[in-house]
Design goal:
The protein has 18 helices and eight strands. The chain has 376 residues and is an alpha/beta fold. Helix 3 runs antiparallel to helix 4 and helix 7 packs across helix 9. The protein starts with a helix and ends with a helix.
Length: 376
């Protein structure tokens, strides 16, 4: 058999290379020994061997590309299970996000827009290795990594203003938000949102450990501060490691809100925060101190019951996109952690606009449509 294979490969090497790949290690070594005995070219033998080695993994990679319409309708393997969106909503999401029909990276890798978006969605949906996605997308891990990174950078820079504060949409709904919060028990009818921070833990970096160490939680990580509105959308995700007040100053949200918070009847529309925040014209916090009156305690209690929605939305981000909650793979010197979390917030808002959320159900207020939120 080996002699027959030798002469056949000598005449048609490109045809019989796949047969050589199917050999085990011992069969390959025996075959190379036969080549040497027959005074076969050493260079050709080594080229054959290393070509087979390099193709070992690629022969198990399917050549078919992702087809959303071929995925199961529900359960493991379905579009919503893998990408957090239904198959028909993936195309709608891609169009609203302005991802082009054909994505071309700087290294000339090309992919359909829906396929490129799905690569990013699957990467963020649950902790996984790039090689684990080869079978699903029919591409090698380098291509999947490069294409999903292109989509990540595109979304971050394209929708930075929408994430920070949508001045064209949010101020128009201050009154509607305040009425919804007041109906649920808030003692004042001027609160339109809730502000708080969350910490995303990361691996301890080799350099600059003190810059990302959080003394309160005693872990390395980045804090993200956001404002949550009653329709379940998050705004102003600013990152840092310091106290909430320092993040508030760094976000520059103060100057932005001062342009919009004046009420026609006098006073200001306000955001409610925890006791860590200071009192500002547009920011209200609970009564502080050990000796407060019964009325003040009742005020704090009623506001606390509606302020819990901010925790629901922080939890929804990591529930949908568990990759950013996987501490062992959060490496600040190797990955754009801030960019990843902010894009996850954007995708969470898109998910809320498409399927709703616990916060929107609690306050009985519908979120905007996906097209309205992304101004498509």
């Amino acid at each position: 058999f080996f002699f027959f294979f030798f002469f056949a490969w000598h005449l048609y090497p490109e045809i019989y290379l796949q047969d050589f790949i199917s050999f085990g290690m011992r069969e390959r070594e025996l075959f190379l020994y036969v080549l040497f005995v027959l005074d076969f070219s050493v260079v050709d033998a080594l080229l054959l061997y290393y070509a087979a080695e390099s193709l070992d993994r690629r022969v198990f990679t399917p050549q078919l590309r992702l087809r959303l319409d071929h995925l199961p309708s529900e359960g493991p393997g379905s579009s919503k299970y893998e990408f957090r969106f239904e198959a028909h909503d993936v195309s709608r999401l891609r169009m609203c996000l302005r991802i082009p029909d054909i994505v071309t990276t700087k290294n000339r890798r090309r992919a359909l827009g829906d396929e490129a978006l799905c690569m990013l969605l699957r990467r963020l949906a649950y902790p996984c290795r790039w090689c684990d996605l080869e079978k699903l997308f029919g591409r090698d891990q380098k291509a999947i990594s490069e294409i999903s990174s292109w989509v990540l950078y595109f979304l971050f820079h394209r929708f930075a203003d929408v994430l920070f504060f949508d001045e064209g949409r949010v101020p128009r709904k201050f009154a509607q938000y305040a009425d919804a919060i007041h109906r649920k028990g808030a003692p004042v009818n001027a609160i339109w949102g809730f502000i708080d921070g969350t910490l995303r833990a990361m691996c301890r970096p080799r350099y600059g450990q003190r810059a990302v160490y959080n003394g309160h939680k005693r872990v390395h990580g980045l804090k993200f501060q956001s404002i949550v509105t009653p329709d379940g959308l998050l705004s102003d995700p600013i990152e840092g490691r310091r106290h909430d007040v320092a993040l508030l100053r760094a976000s520059n949200i103060n100057n932005t809100l001062l342009r919009h918070v004046e009420r026609p009847t006098g006073g200001c529309w306000m955001v409610y925060g925890d006791p860590a925040y200071p009192m500002l014209p547009w920011l209200m916090c609970p009564y502080k101190g050990a000796h407060i009156t019964a009325l003040q305690q009742e005020f704090n209690k009623r506001m606390s019951s509606v302020r819990q929605c901010v925790e629901w939305q922080f939890g929804k981000v990591v529930q949908l996109w568990a990759f950013v909650d996987f501490k062992k793979n959060m490496k600040v010197l190797l990955q754009p952690l801030t960019m990843m979390y902010k894009v996850c917030v954007l995708l969470t808002n898109c998910h809320v606009c498409t399927y709703g959320s616990q916060t929107a159900t609690f306050f009985e207020i519908d979120p905007p449509t996906l097209e309205r939120y992304l101004d498509y």
